[in-house]
């Protein structure tokens, strides 16, 4: 925006009235300014009247020049102040009215093409304009003084805000206001800083906090209380699985023989009960699994696993362990379905054909699941045996990779209470499977080893068991720590397991230990048969049959005795623990 500075603009045409140049007229002339050629000035000087008019015009132009110089001085002063204010990043514009200059020009044209041009200026009007300009200059000076004060106030405000902003951006001053010792920290020497660090006390004060009683209890729970209760729960679960396995190989055959004897002596057909149908289904699945495993060449599988170089032994063992857990879970569901169909077939009065077909279909599915699971366990047993026999520390590599992979996959995850209970039960089942694998290795050493092997077998078996116990304890201790699970929770899990062992009704939502002993029983029977065959005496066929019968009877009696000891021990422990829990609850109430 261009500013006029309060000056009036005077439009002046100083055109001298002279005759217009006409064609073929050499005497015609025109009055011109000083910038005109000298030849024309001689014509102006020749006329006295025009000379006087010239003088009056010069006087008025001098007055105008004086007024213009004054306005220019005021305008330059105002422009300089505005420029100085623009340096402080503040420009204030004020709208001022610029009055139009009043000039009256009467122009008459004669002889449009070359006539005389005349200008008649009214001097009186010009003098009035000069008076008005003086008044306007005074008013503008007053307005300018007032506006300059306002501009100065705005400039001072902006300068103060700028200073405040600069002070707020001063990091040292800001930190000094919040922490009076900040400048001391910054300005101190390295030696003083190191001396203060030595004398300030605990060097971990910035990265650790003081523990309370709850934190202390958590530490001792992780180290002492929880490992003991966890190992007690897994051990009881292991013996529950062992008792179920002994029931399959000792109680179930006796019950089937009794049912068959009663059916032969009965004159009328009697529908079997649900328990008898369930025993029959389990026996069929066990017999099919043992028969198919007897047709399997273990030596061939052993050399295939040992000779291959594509997959490492510990990788193969981890893969088979995953399939083992999957088959265990699926086999439990199939077995529950079979028991349900057996109960429906035993209690149905109508639609017997429907329930019979359902029971047979579930039986086929149970046999297939048992066979698949048996082959998986057999392959896993052969892989572990290969690692034990190998001389390149393959067993150590297998234990390290398997156990630490288990810790990595479970410790740093979130688990609920029910998930932890299922995991503990799964570890109990896994420990029983490891016992079956160790028994398989023992049988292989007994049959095929030709050098002193018992000491090496004990070392390897102890290494496997110790690693398994340590990994289970560490895993569950840190899972309980990270998920804020108290040791008393594992005592509650043990209480539920004792109720399950005594066949008491569990509360709704309580998890149960699920274990299907069919596949481990198939593998153990398949492994022990070559051992008995190796120690049978040579002689006639009848003598060999007698020896087989005697060995079988002795083995059965030993297993039955073991079953009674384990079963009665579990029963007494369950009763004692439930009574103890009941007394503790009464004491707490």
TrEMBL record:
Which locations, inside or outside the cell, does it occupy?
A: Membrane
The cross-references to InterPro entries, in alphabetical order and at most eight, read:
Tatp1 (IPR008010)
Q: Where is the composition biased (Basic and acidic residues)?
A: 59-80
Mark the transmembrane ranges: 232-254, 274-293, 513-535, 541-562
Key word Transmembrane present: yes
Q: Where does the record place Acidic residues bias?
A: 128-141
Q: Where is this region: Disordered?
A: 1-80, 127-151
Q: Name one GO cellular component term.
A: endoplasmic reticulum membrane
Report keywords, A-Z: Membrane, Transmembrane, Transmembrane helix
Its topology with respect to the membrane? Answer: Multi-pass membrane protein
Bias (Basic residues) ranges: 1-10
Q: Describe the family membership recorded for this protein in Swiss-Prot or TrEMBL.
A: Belongs to the TAPT1 family.
User: What is the protein name given in its UniProt record?
Assistant: Protein POLLEN DEFECTIVE IN GUIDANCE 1
State the organism named in the record: Heracleum sosnowskyi
Organism lineage: Eukaryota, Viridiplantae, Streptophyta, Embryophyta, Tracheophyta
